[in-house]
Amino acid sequence: MWALLLMSELMGIYVASVMKISSILCLFAIISLMILYKNADIKNKRYIALLAIFFISIIAVNFRNRNVQRDYVSLEGKITQDFMGNENKFIFSDKYFNKYLIYTQEKSKVGDKVRIKGEVHIPAGKMNPYDFDYKNYLRAKGIDYIVYCDSVQYMGKSYIDKVRTDFREYVESTTAYLQEDNQKIVMSILLANTDYMDEMSRSDFRETGLSHVLAVSGLHIGIIFYVVDVLLKLVRVSKIKRRIIAILLTTTYIYLIYFPVGAMRSLIMYILLFMSFLSRRKYKAKDGLILSTIITLLINPYGFYSPSFIFSYLSVLGILLFANKIKIKLGSVYLRNSVAITLAASVMTIPLSLYYFNSYSVLGILSNILILPLYTLVIVLSYTMMFFKFLSPIISPTVDLILNIVSLLVQAVRNLNFINIELPADISQIAIYYLFLMLVVKRDIFARYYAFNKSILASAVLILSLSIFNYIDDREDLKMDFLYVDQAECTFIKAGKSSIMVDAAGNYDKEYRTGKIYTLNYLKHNSIREIDHLFLTHFDEDHAEGLLDIIDEVRIRNAYVSYFEDNEYLSALLERGTDVYLVKKGDIIDIGDDVRIKVISDSERYRDSNNKSMVFILECGGFKSLFTGDIHKEAEEYIDCDVDLLKVAHHGSKTSTSEDFLKRTTPLYATISAGVDNYYNHPDIEVINRLKDANIIWKSTNYHGQITLSMADGEVEFTSYLEDKLKIDSWIAVGALLLMIFIYKFGDYFVVQRTLQRRY
User: Fold this and answer.
1) Which of the two residues, 702 and 38, has the higher pLDDT score?
2) Would you call 718 helix, strand, or coil by DSSP?
3) CA distances for 649 relative to 513, 583, 674, 678, angstroms
4) 3-state secondary structure of 25
5) Does 418 have pLDDT greater than 80?
């Protein structure tokens, strides 16, 4: 029943996210259901409860979305959180408890009551299929808007929020006796904040599968409850009082470190356990986990979008479902408890690791068996230092010794990282995996239904075969992915058997690396380890800087430029043995498989870097695509050719793509690369109107996300990620609805049959 309630809640969250439903209407529906509930039989009461949680979850989402979107705001509230890595970045909460991520050049501190004025922006979500979803990441933290502040007026101090800063300073003082690197690790553990560590240290934790050590979760909360219980037991405090004190103390601690997901889950489950103890009812851990999920999502409906949330709950579910069974199979194996727990959690999280990170750390199994016990001891000693500061000078040398040993072990384990799995996964494959897992877990229910089982097995084998066939039989003659790379450009082309990349993205701000965020992520997800041909149209940062982010991750065999200059991009290519070619107007590069590239620009004619851009036509199977770099109208005047697709120059700036140019090239399709809410307001409305007037089918990455043009057997398909995503989301909703109908129709039948089977 609890599982059905959770499904109903998730359905309500999804529906409320894609369409606006009145909270008043939902409230009226809930009241009506409560009236019906009183006189309903047991079966109908269950369905009424499902409908009620559905409408309650819609209200919860509406409560989060109640703030009105405006271009410019003046708000009063307080600074509730700062960021160690950026002194200009804060979380601001207004008097209605709405949260905003704000950027300001003025000095502010946590606990400051302020009035802010500035421009409001909606954060960009996923624009490529396998991007990090920044919008939902912020949503999971309760943030819907970003404000770039013109002014921040100080109005007083909120001491309730300032105590968080005081606590952080207290933790820093208690760990001051540790070696510098070890202090950063311990502070990250105690404060659930990895900003204290450098990227190399964070990478060590990721690659060895020990990131959960840095996120306050069940392990940490369990240690706190155990230590508090032992200490209070020594002074003869009653069992009930010990547990109440532990709950209050843990709640305070979680508040001070901004309510991490794993800690919230553990606390809610412990409270439910305590309530069952008081009411003398049997506690079922799986029901407690599901109820904890329901409560957490009612508090923050968008928590479901957080990978931390999903990994936290599924790891525990895996342990509850499989740990004991694995332990029995292991017999008397050394450290079998650790092995069983690690394997059980892995069973539930492997496909998600492949989906979110394009890899799975097999080393994590080894690390959690060998290294986690040492980190557990570090956590115990760290909490002891935190609670009893006067013991810090005595305990610190021991913590340093353990962490130094751990560091050596981590480096030894990292040398085995070649055994980690690098294999991207998509939603359909994940769904198949969990379908099989569900059938394994519930096999006793369906054990005697041979026809049913055979149909399920046949369907699963068919789906898997189609999935594998999709990888093996790539029937597309040409596929061009125009990546969303913010206000930059990058196109990846699969033509015949050759891989071609045009530009590599980049940014003028060296701290914001679009090549790493977008280009490298795309290559990793698609398991691309070699690029046959790289064309750098010119050397502006938004076209070439991303090269430095990918050059050590993939092999680039050949690179082409239309002019030479002394820069780090050419140096990086030459240092790594890439063959670099200088091309000029009229050059033809025969790629093979009926694919060729003809250079039609004359870079020597211009001094401006944009107009020096390499312009070329890629022809594959008779389909011609024109790539234009960042050329302006004066360079376009020398281009006269019929093409099928135009890569619009200079991000859709009005300095390019003249009406005459479109008449001379007569493209059927056009793509534009531009960033969401970009400073230049690209693409310009004049350019868009010219494309429309010429009856050209156009798409722009800031509106449509990643754009894909594919051709197979002469048939062309022109799509985009955001358009496809809408179709996929609709199918997910339909699938969830069909599943609910199936449970409604046949659920009782399987329950009855299971009962009969147990009797006989």
Assistant:
1) 702
2) strand
3) 22, 20, 11, 16
4) helix
5) no
Query: What order of strands is seen across the sheet that includes strand 530-535?
Result: 579-582, 555-561, 530-535, 498-502, 491-495, 478-482, 707-712, 715-720
Sheet containing 623-627, strands listed edge to edge, beginning at the edge strand earlier in sequence: 588-592, 595-599, 616-620, 623-627, 645-647, 669-672, 697-700
Distance CA 543, CA 18 (A): 35
CB atoms within 10 A of CB 746: 10
d(CA 147, CA 123) in angstroms, rounded, equals: 10
Phi first, then psi, for residue 55 (nearest 5°) are: -70, -35
> How far is the C-alpha of 573 from the C-alpha of 555, rounded, in Å?
10
Residues 192 and 168 sit within 8 Å (Cβ to Cβ):
no
Whole-angstrom Cα distance, residue 140 to residue 307?
A: 9
206 Cβ contact partners less than 8 Å away, ≥ 6 residues apart: 361
Q: Residue 678 in 3-state DSSP?
A: coil
Instruction: Say if strands 478-482 and 491-495 run parallel, antiparallel, or are unpaired.
Output: antiparallel
- pTM (2 d.p.): 0.79
Q: How far apart are CA 179 and CA 378, in angstroms?
A: 14
Q: In degrees rounded to 5, what are phi and psi of residue 203? A: -65, -40
Q: Where are the alpha helices (DSSP H) in 578-720?
A: 633-636, 659-665, 685-693, 701-704
Q: C-alpha angle with apex 5: 4 to 6, nearest 5 degrees? A: 90
* Alpha-carbon gap, residue 627 to 187, rounded angstroms: 50
The amino acid sitting at 288 is G
What are the DSSP E strand ranges found in 26-168?
72-83, 86-94, 99-103, 112-121, 143-157
On the question of pLDDT at 759 being above 50, the answer is no
| Cα–Cα dist 128/483, whole Å | 7
Q: Scanning the structure block, which residue is given the tokens 């979760």?
A: 217
b or e along 116-143 (b: 16 or more beta carbons within 10 Å of the residue's beta carbon)? bebebbebbbbbbbbbebebbbbbbbbb
Only one residue has tokens 């005459």, namely 660
Distance CA 537, CA 540 (A): 9
Contact assessment for residue 429 and residue 471, using Cβ atoms and an 8 Å cutoff: no
| 488's tokens | 């930059």
Query: How do 707-712 and 555-561 pair as beta strands?
Result: unpaired
Q: How far apart are CA 119 and CA 151, in angstroms?
A: 11
Spatial contact of 104 and 88, defined as CB atoms under 8 Å apart = yes
Place of tokens 């952080």: 168
Q: How confident is the model over 336-348, as pLDDT tens digits?
A: 788 888 889 888 8
pLDDT one-digit tens code per residue, 306-325: 888 888 899 999 999 888 88
What tokens were used for 575?
């240092």
Query: What does the alpha-carbon distance between residue 539 and residue 563 come to, in Å, rounded to a whole number?
Result: 9
Q: Choose among 565, 110, 130, 71: nearest CA to 355.
A: 130
- Using alpha carbons, select from 230, 268, 223, 504 the residue that is nearest to residue 383: 223
DSSP track, 269-334:
HHHHHHHHHHHT----HHHHHHHHHHHHHHH-GGGGG-HHHHHHHHHHHHHHHHHHHHHHHHTT-T
Q: Give the DSSP letter string of 618-652.
A: EEETTEEEEE-TT--HHHHTT-----SEEE-GGGG
